[in-house]
Specification:
The protein is mainly β and 302 residues long. It has two helices and 15 strands. Helices cover 9% and strands 51% of the residues.
């Protein structure tokens, strides 16, 4: 993947690794899974474009950055393996009201060398999360919105960017209420999504991000041991549109609150509220001649 070219050459490799993980975030945030009425859709679609993001360095950080990233557009509507703009999904069980699958998520590395409250502390490797997800259908209509309850539980693993080491860093869960609304018309498809709910994690996960070992404590950064439990709440709004089946435009706004979080007293938490936003544009240049009947939201709407 390409990344931003930095003026300072010695930071170029570091910036490449950082943007590679930010790209995962772009793919996760620029689309929510959507439901579509029964229709014939290509088995797979490929495209490429550009995403622009504005994000904090990590949850609770005051420093923000803009990122300009390549945006792959990959859709696969298989019977078991499904890839959409949100995630790769391994479908394990599906009934009319319940779906069980394997889902994944990713978080970016944290650079203590960038200063801030983590100055002088070790850098944090990016984390990958994987685990089961149960999704319950609450309401669905042919023309109106679709409501679901989602219960993911993922194991988090910190992985060095050169893949030379890895370690388990706990568990995280983000149960949420999801709403999707699809509006179709000649040559275009609008989709609006909403997801809202709390975040929970164990002490090992919170320790990875928010604890301060006694050996690293300073006058401005006292020692702190982060407990497990409530990790804040999130509200995400998304809007996307297909133009004549050849172009896709999408954007998101996310509100992230750490109010009441178990680690709110950590000296590494500077902000308890944050907004994230991004927009992406992709050109879909290839699709399969083979089509599949998309009769449910998990098959991937346009």
């Amino acid at each position: 993947m390409n990344t931003l070219i930095h003026l300072v050459v010695e930071r170029h490799a570091d910036a490449f690794r950082r943007c590679r993980m930010r790209l995962s975030v772009a793919l996760l945030l620029l689309g929510l899974p959507g439901w579509s009425a029964a229709q014939d859709l290509p088995l797979w679609e490929l495209g490429a474009g550009l995403a622009v993001l504005n994000l904090p360095e990590y949850r609770g950080a005051s420093e923000r950055r803009n990122y300009y990233l390549p945006l792959p557009y990959v859709i696969y509507r298989g019977e078991v393996l499904r890839i959409d703009r949100q995630q790769v999904r391994g479908l394990l069980l599906q009934t009319e009201r319940v779906q069980l699958d394997i889902s994944a998520n990713a978080a970016t590395p944290v650079r203590s060398s960038d200063g801030g409250p983590r100055a002088g502390m070790p850098d944090l490797d990016p984390t990958l999360e994987i685990g089961p997800s149960v999704e319950l259908l609450l309401h669905q209509s042919a023309r109106g919105p679709r409501f679901t309850l989602n219960f993911p539980l993922r194991a988090a693993v910190a992985v060095a960017e050169d893949l030379s080491r890895w370690q388990g860093v706990g568990w995280v869960s983000q149960p949420h209420l999801g709403m999707d609304w699809l509006n179709t018309g000649p040559g275009r498809v609008w989709r609006f999504g909403l997801a809202a709910g709390p975040v929970f994690a164990d002490s090992k996960y919170h320790h990875y991000y928010y604890s301060v070992a006694p050996a690293l404590a300073t006058a401005a950064r006292p020692a702190y041991a982060a407990p497990g439990g409530y990790s804040g709440a999130r509200l995400t709004l998304t809007l996307s549109r297909r133009f004549k089946q050849d172009y896709w435009l999408g954007g998101f706004v996310r509100y992230d609150s750490l109010a009441g979080a178990a680690f709110r007293d950590s000296p590494l938490v500077e902000e308890r509220h944050a907004l994230m936003a991004g927009v992406g544009l992709a050109w879909i240049f290839a699709r399969s001649g083979r089509t599949v009947k998309a009769t449910d939201w998990s098959a991937g709407s346009p």
